[in-house]
Amino acid sequence: MAFLINRTPPARLRCLQYLLQLIDKKFGKHSFFMGSVMFDRSSMNIHNFCKLLIEDKSLNIKYCPFLKNPLSKAGCYLTQAIDSDTTKKKEISNAVNALDALGFIRREGRELQITDLGLEFARADFKTQQWLQIIRKATCNYGTMVGLLYQIYKKDAEFDVSNLIVGYPNTEEIVRIKGKAVEISSGSKRDSNTRTKSCLLAWATTAGFIIPASLIGKIAPDKAHIDTDAYIIHSTRNDRIYRKGAFPNIFDRNFITEIPLDYNNLTKNVRALREHRQEVLRQETMKCDDVIKNRRLAILYSLNKAFQENKLLNLESLKEKLFVKPEWFVVSKEDFNEVIDVEIEIAFIAGIPFEVESGKYLKPITGLKESVLIANAPSQVISYLSSLVEEILL
């Protein structure tokens, strides 16, 4: 399964490699749990592998350069410490999500296991072509990266990253509760978009797919990860203008995204809406959560069938078929058509970008690994969508 990454520490792929080296050393190909790779000063930890630590001889310590306080008990910015509070434990969760997205680990419930690709990356020398080639392959595994790269692919050779979109679509749907209008929270917030995009742009820069304006003319394609290293490990990366570099050849309509967002991750975690006066919003959004997942799944599943059969998806026909099953796909009948016109943006987040033909036909550019996409999806919804294929494709 793949989550939408929404925190920035995994932007530094070297840090992820050191975490994988810890996993390799402690567990090899055996399964492990998330908490067992958090920083624990009393046992083997990521410091045993990290080559970015700063040494302070006066204090007789080595510390993570990304923590504001060298004496912080957190130990590592990427993983945080085993005794961190609940908020800080979100960091290890996001780090694991990043490893999953790249295909370096696999999940089975709460159990985790390093993959062959993860082992290969853990054991690769940073200064080699092997390291770079693994990263180029791994970043293109992740659906959200594929969608972002397609947006860049359609731009000029030099482009501004400020208008690139990586978050969940915001439909601005209204439900009425006791006469009051409540807008359900189905889309990503600006700060979440910013964090996700920052991480993915760093990955693409490390891979040499794109080049920040400040490094133009200073990057050798076969040493992109080395030549961009100082930029990536800096505490801030503020370039807005980039240039296309050694761009991946994945938009020839033959590429399949291996790790798209799966059914459970087609919506954000609405349980996190706990701020003041958000209780009603949280409750109403949770009530609609399955419907939002179902209709986003319908878009992705239908687009993927169009890709598999080399056909176009008739969006108007799909809308009609979904509308007759309101219990599965409809929140508000009044603005359903407009909502679906917004929801189709989920394709770029999941890893199946498309082009629009004649204003209503969608032409998928890549495919999705279907078994990942439909994992945990309701069987009756999948069965219904499967029955529609002949009527909505042309």
Question: In terms of topology, how is this protein built?
Answer:
Elements: H1 13-27, E1 54-56, E2 61-63, H2 90-101, E3 105-108, E4 111-114, H3 116-122, H4 129-139, H5 143-153, E5 158-160, E6 174-177, E7 180-183, H6 190-206, E8 210-212, H7 224-227, H8 229-233, E9 241-244, E10 256-257, H9 279-308, E11 313-314, H10 315-323, H11 326-329, H12 336-343, H13 346-350, E12 354-357, E13 361-364, E14 367-368, H14 370-373, H15 379-392
Parallel strand pairs: 10-14
Antiparallel strand pairs: 1-2, 3-4, 5-9, 6-7, 8-9, 11-13, 12-13
Word description of this protein:
By secondary structure, the chain is of the alpha+beta class. Helix content is 40%, strand content 12%. It is built from 15 helices and 14 strands. The protein is globular and about 70 Å long. The two termini are 30 Å apart. The mean pLDDT is 90.
Quick summary:
By secondary structure, the chain is of the alpha+beta class.
**Rg over CA atoms:** 22 Å
- The overall pLDDT average reads 90
Helix content: 25-40%
Strand segment count: 14
Q: Which ranges are low-confidence, i.e. pLDDT below 50, for 5 or more consecutive residues?
A: none
Category from helices, strands and their pairing: alpha+beta
Q: Globular, elongated, flat, extended or rod-shaped: what is the shape? A: globular
Total of helices: 15
Which labels suit this protein?
394 residues, alpha+beta, three-stranded antiparallel beta sheet, globular
